[in-house]
Amino acid sequence: MTAHRPQAGFERAKARFFMLCLAPSLAVLALVTLAPALFLVVSSLTPLDLTRPDTVGDFSRPLENYRLMMADGRLANSVWVQAKLSFWTVLLQLLIGFGLALLLNSRTRFLEALRTVFLIPMVLPPIVVAIIWKVIYTPDISPMHWALASLGFEVPSLITDPGWALTAIIIADTWQWFPFTMLMTLAALQMMPQELIDAAKVDGATAWQMTWHVTLPFLKGVLLVAGLFRLIDSIKAFPLIFILTDGGPGSVTEVTNYYSFQQAFNFSLLGYSSAITTVLLAASVLISWAIIRSIGWGHRE
Amino acid sequence: MNRGLARERRILNIAALVLAAMAMAPFLWLLQMSFKTNAQIFTFPPELFFAPTLENYAALWETDFRRSFVNSLVVSTAATVLPMLLGVPAAYALSRWQARAAGSISLWILASRMAPPIAFTIPYFLAYRHLGLIDTWAGLVLIYLTFNLSLVIWMMRPFFDQLPQALEEAAWIDGATTAQGFFRIVLPLAAPGLAATAILCFLFAWNDFFFALILTRTEAMTAPVAVVNFMNYEGWEWGRIAAGGTMVMLPVLVFSLLVRRYLVHGLTGGAVKG
Questions:
Q1: How confident is residue A300, by pLDDT bands cut at 50, 70 and 90?
Q2: How far apart are CA B40 and CA B37, in angstroms?
Q3: How far is B103 from chain A (nearest CA, A)?
Q4: Engineered SS bond to A234: which of A86, B127, B187, B240, CB 3.0-4.6 Å?
Q5: Test mutation, A10, A16, A141, A241, chain B, max B CBs within 10 A
Q6: Measured between CB atoms, does A299 come within 8 Å of chain B?
Q7: Choosing among B11, B141, B268, B273, which should be mutated to test the A contact, i.e. which has the most A CBs within 10 A?
Q8: Which of A106, A100, A112 is nearest to B261 (CA)?
Q9: What whole-number distance in Å separates Cα of residue B89 and Cα of residue A26?
Q10: B40-73 pLDDT tens trace
Q11: Best residue in A259, A297, A299, A301 for a mutation probing chain B (most B CBs within 10 Å)
């Protein structure tokens, strides 16, 4: 064991190098994510309003914002709108993504090329997606309205109609994100063991039985994770609502995230908005925790 | 393969093709609009064959959009280089060092991916008003670190995990330092991962709308915000809006199809291997 001492020296040098690699990133990450999150919680305890300088750092009634939230009917409405938007977009994206994945799950060159085509909505900048649907929902220049009119249906603009505006957002969001659930399902399908498929075939399973009793149970986990990811992202919905409806008409498409944005940057009520956002942040951390629980992310394979 | 199966396959292929065309139609509509005059945009039934015009693009380039486009390029490039410099060594250390610390850091990284952007926007907005960082390149690059630094770490760690440690150990035995092993042996082998990660960073910064909307005014305004301004202030210049939208999406389309293998991985924070 003559090599023992230099070996220990090398181990120390190695640890020092790894520390040097890691420390700057962790310091910056703490500065850009943890510090602001803390700041957010602190400002939620004040009535901060940029038009009233005396509200800065006023901690006399720290829970006032949270008490106001309880009595805010527009906030309650925004949570309900959020629930409807999340439910329908996640459900539709899972169904369409799953269906398309089954259809495309074959290693022919034709289908591989088509897969790439289906990815396009997801990789477009969100703002371009919003513009595309603004065009489709604007009767003067919309191919959809023209086609409907030539079939004899004169339809009003969906995004200005209180009965249709949320549906219009749901359609656009589903178009943008079905490729995500499709990709995740396809990735899982390709890992499906051949024995499983062969065994079912030997037992004489029809295509439907195969999907229902073999494929679906195998995909349960990945569909759950895909759904949770889309659920979290649906809480962040912004560009589509900003461009298409601005939360309206009235407040039928005003989700909580959007309501918070308006309180902060249209009405300058940053303290109140911070309180709403703190609750949103807590909700998304809770869903992240559910994701970690269901897949054990963060552990080494 | 028997004839019944072949027919079934053909029917499924046609169904897939029809669905793909339906999924593509909204996107193609915007693309063709950008090559039409405003009068043609309002003409229905639409002309399938028309002489494409570049006048929308020419008009667009005469406005402030040009500066916004440059802003987007500069900010997205900086918001790629900086996180790569910080994050790549960190990912290497996490891959090779104690796994216990790595677990809790991964949790933190996922949480910052999940946080709603408005949670960061309010504190940054308040801080930037004091620091004079509103409407600056530096302000945008800094807030883009919130997602891109995490992205680099979670994208690169699995790449390093895949490289056998024996490679560096051989170099260490030959007298190389840990740093030399990293720079000369590991980094060159991780080149494909580095390229994919850099492209994703660029895309996420380029696509941002929300942060730029709130933290910029005129000087540092990025292209996505500039396009939206054509809707608000200059009436409904549909041709110009379509041209601007096309210019914002073209680089993204080219790049993201290059890295499509890594898209799911980048979007889910490594939860799923695409």
A1: very low
A2: 5
A3: 5
A4: A86
A5: A141
A6: yes
A7: B268
A8: A112
A9: 11
A10: 888 778 777 787 888 889 888 888 899 999 999 9
A11: A297
> Rounded to an integer, what distance in angstroms lies between the CA atom of residue A264 and that of residue B59?
35
Q: Domain limits at A12?
A: 4-33
Do A276 and A82 form a contact (C-beta atoms < 8 A)? no
Q: Indicate the length of chain B as a whole number.
A: 274
- Say if residue A96 is in the same domain as residue A11: no
Same domain, yes or no: A157 and A15: no
**Cα distance between residue A284 and residue A281, in whole Å:** 5
> How buried is residue B197: exposed, middle or buried, by Cβ count under 10 Å (0-12/13-18/19+)?
buried
DSSP state at residue B47: P
Give the number of other Cβ atoms within 10 Å of residue A221's Cβ: 12
HSE-up of residue B110 (Cα within 13 Å, Cβ side): 29
Instruction: Find chain A residues with C-beta within 8 A of B227's C-beta.
Output: 127, 131
Question: Based on the domain organization, do A95 and A27 belong to the same domain?
Answer: no
Determine the 3-state secondary structure of A52 from DSSP. strand
Q: Which of residues 142-161 of A touch B (CB under 8 A)?
A: 143, 146, 150
ipTM: 0.86
CATH number 1.10.510.10 given to B56-268: no
CB contact under 8 A, B16 and A114: yes
